[in-house]
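Sequence design from tokenized structure. All designs in this work follow the same two-part layout: the structure record, then the generated sequence. An example of the structure record is given first.
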């Protein structure tokens, strides 16, 4: 199927008003266009419930696709009782909604990594320098299989995805440690060492001093045949634009804009509305 336009949109974070405004700015037509979301559909914005319902409806009619972000996995963990709801995450209305189970069951079947076209790969946080894209896809499929297995297995998995242990990657990692490392790379990474060792405390912009030997994952130059489109790092405001990586979290939830990357020409379009 060929589309008129395809757009990759950064973290919605439940900013529903800004999302609707962005669709308006794009002149989005679900009959002709397709949206790809970089994950973190929910959390800090004004209406996570409506955002999730809207994205699910678009995905089900084939007009959108999404990858999972850390906030989406967190939503699954709260749903299954593996972690408690944090006040700053304004997602309580989702758990009170009558379609809660339906929404969350849909969410757990979404991938961690996707290929919007033959030039790009979409993932929430990024791909570390020591993984080829092919490997990243394989690891993503491993974790997806566990997220999509029985609820009993999901309940066993989720508590293990919560640890700030900066698991250094080793292809022999196994069990839940392996799943946690995959989740950390694909959905939480910002800084890493050349060997892929992760650092979790740094969330600032690139002007701030970083811990020794750590750099933003995309600054370790690795030849890639696809451009990595990613969200997650709001402080970058979508300003990182390299041949092999493009940041798309505009930091809407912090008073900035939502961003949409048009696949056919790489043009980035901002929502006119800012999230309050
Ligand atoms: Mn995130």
């Amino acid at each position: 199927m060929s589309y008129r336009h395809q757009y990759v949109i950064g973290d919605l974070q439940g900013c529903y008003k800004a999302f609707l405004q962005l669709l308006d700015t794009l002149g989005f037509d679900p009959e002709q266009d397709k949206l790809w979301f970089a994950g973190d559909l929910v959390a800090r914005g004004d209406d996570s419930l409506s955002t999730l319902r809207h994205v699910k409806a678009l995905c089900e009619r084939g007009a959108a696709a999404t990858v999972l972000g850390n906030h989406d996995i967190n939503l699954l963990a709260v749903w299954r009782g593996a972690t408690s709801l944090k006040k700053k995450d304004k997602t309580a209305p989702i758990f009170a909604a009558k379609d809660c189970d339906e929404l969350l069951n849909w969410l757990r079947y979404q991938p961690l990594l996707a290929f919007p076209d033959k030039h790009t790969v979409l993932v929430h946080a990024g791909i570390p320098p020591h993984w080829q894209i092919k490997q990243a896809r394989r690891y993503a499929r491993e974790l997806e299989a566990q997220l999509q297995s029985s609820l009993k297995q999901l309940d066993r998995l989720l508590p293990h995805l919560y640890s700030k242990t900066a698991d250094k990657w080793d292809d022999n990692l196994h069990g839940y440690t392996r799943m946690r490392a995959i989740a950390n790379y694909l959905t939480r990474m910002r800084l890493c060492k050349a060997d892929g060792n992760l650092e979790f405390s740094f969330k600032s912009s690139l002007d701030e001093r970083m811990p020794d030997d750590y750099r933003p994952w995309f600054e370790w130059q690795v030849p890639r045949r696809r451009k990595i489109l990613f969200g997650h790092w709001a402080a970058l405001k979508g300003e990182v634009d390299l041949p092999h990586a493009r940041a798309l979290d505009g930091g809407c939830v912090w008073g900035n804009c939502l961003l949409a990357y048009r696949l056919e020409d790489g043009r980035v379009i901002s929502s006119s509305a800012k999230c309050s």
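The chain has one domain: 6-270. We note this feature because it recurs in several other targets discussed in the main text.
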